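User: Hey, quick favor. My workstation is busy. Could you predict this chain's structure for me?
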Amino acid sequence: MAESTALFIPTAVHPFPGGAERAWKAVQGHASIPLTQLGWKSVGLLELTALPTVREENWVPAVRSADALLVWGGDVLYLTHWLRRSGLADLLPSLSDTVYVGVSAGSIAVTPYNCDAEFDLGFVPDGSDMAQDADRALGLVDFTVYPHLDHPEMADATLSNIEKWAAGIPVPTYAIDDNTAIRVVDGTVDVISEGEWRLINP
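Assistant: No problem, here it is.
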């Protein structure tokens, strides 16, 4: 990491109450998962909501040269909306040498299905078309992720609830707790865990 550059994307947390403070804590590395404080050579901030108003030649080279994209958690629907609208979603498949690091919503966003769609709909502004296809994410991998398994503050993240949701999804679902990560390299999937996880096949 001492030789690697990273771009941090806090966008997903903005729709929530206190989103501005949450974003700042995440940027500072004062959140529960201090992504920005892992000893990177350098860290930049990439705010997706700004990119449609910025010339591509002023942000795309920074993305292409980064060794890692650190995509923070929050509202999956909002994040996928801005990944698409910013143009980063179209760019991601070409970043073959870049490590995509997603936390919570940041990980769900690259899967085919949004397990948080019902929850996320409560944060859509009146009159916005963001709610269209709320249950779909980017589909850059061929499985879904349901994070925060058995988290005490997330009543919907019990294994039984996740299994009910996964029963309606035509691809495998990984139910993972906060001590588990999924690594995908050239299509090969590995689970790295010091906690609990379950693979639920359709």
